[in-house]
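Input.
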Amino acid sequence: MLKKRKKRREKDEVKVSETKSVDKSTGEVIDKVAVSYELTGTKEQIQALENYMDNLGILYRKRG
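Output.
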């Protein structure tokens, strides 16, 4: 599901640099940032957080 969402967002945006892209439909310049967190929670809490990030279109990668 993450790969599908990422591909859809890549279709909607033109990458200008590592930290900026442009939304093709609106012409809006989007500033992007990358941050790292270490999270501790129940399996259900982590799944709820992933669902929330998916709904917002936040790209993430699982480690561990």
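The two ends are 19 Å apart (CA to CA).
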